[in-house]
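Let's see one such:

===
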Amino acid sequence: MPNDRYVSPLSERYASKEMQYIFSPDMKFSTWRRLWIALAEVEKELGLPITQEQIDEMKAHVTDINYDVAKAREKEVRHDVMSHVYAYGVQCPKAKGIIHLGATSCYVGDNTDIIVMTEALKLVRKKLINVLAELAKFADRYKALPTLAFTHFQPAQPTTVGKRATLWMQEFLLDLEDLDHVLGSMKLLGSKGTTGTQASFLELFNGDQETIDKIDPMIAEKMGFQECYPVSGQTYSRKVDTRVANVLAGIAASAHKMSNDIRLLQHLKEVEEPFEKSQIGSSAMAYKRNPMRSERIASLSRYVMVDALNPAITSATQWFERTLDDSANKRLSIPEGFLAVDGILDLCLNVVDGLVVYEKVIEKHIMNELPFMATENIMMDAVKRGGDRQELHERIRILSMEAGRNVKEKGLDNNLLELIAADETFGLSLEELQACMEPSRYVGRAKEQTESFLQNVVQPILDENKDLLGVKTDISV
């Protein structure tokens, strides 16, 4: 790694080698060459004087890209596509005259962008499925473990640790639905010429409309796509980039929400992200165990959510059939959005796989608050013994406020049960009251909801995608 120039931390610290390859020069320029081969094959099959020998020569040089020749040529002509046409021709002298025949730069540039984004979406999907699988294991393991739920980050009716994890999963499932919709609708640009009219092919095929109609479907099939966009200017609609970036932003938002919850739970010492044996939490405070992975998820997620504005603004500001103010922006916003999401999902996998749950701390917290939450049940028991519901409600309100003051102002334990037992209005002993203090009585259907969600919603998706499971992540720092 050079130490005298800027290197993107997305490559050096966060994104996987798989995602980096998808956006690498090798992937880009070998795809350009595969597209030139597909075009030549289609033109040959539709009757143009192109030989199999020429095509075979092109196929022999798909991956051994002569970058030095292309770079030297680009310094002269200031055009990346024509530089690579030239470099390819140097390696393929017999095919030199038919490379890029009838095409414009966007034939390779835009079709490659669609192919690259499609491959990147597939990798994102694979990792998203694996995050869901890890969360499913976690949710199932802790489906019955009572824990304080929070509304407004104030203690509320208990839930279970597993049920809370299903809330994270449901958001990722919404992202998966969006991803599958966009992935299933990706189409190639095809070969439509400088303003999308296919005028060059009218010339090449002597105005044969029926033959020209076959070009795009044949290119799509050769490149592994169902179809091409039916109409375009010189480029595919930049709205496509917007849709892709919005999917990435959605995943980032879901990951951010989960990471926020984990960070708050780590503050409460209830749940903790993985902390390695030799890991340092703070340069000054040696005892600290900071949730740095969850913080990094949040940090990268904010970047992705903001990054989604780039394609939206680019899409909105394109002029007529084509302007070039999209190019520099696309080179940054699309690859870096994918690299960041890749890093986010790797972190999510790492965190969820190693989440530590401190059951005793969770129990302590819930027992501190449970007397307040049990008051409705206590009141009902007292009514059954002949008490007046309205009078009991008022007494509980007064005693709850007294117990709350003892906790908040005096730092004492919650003594609400003792206060109720000492109040003759209720007619309940301390032993009878303590019998109500079983947390599982207050979690509602959390366990059953978790089981149903995992069995009926999540498991079918995991079964359908079982060939994608088993991804292991390597966190660089």
Strands lie at 146-151, 154-160, 271-272, 356-357. The chain has a mean pLDDT of 93.
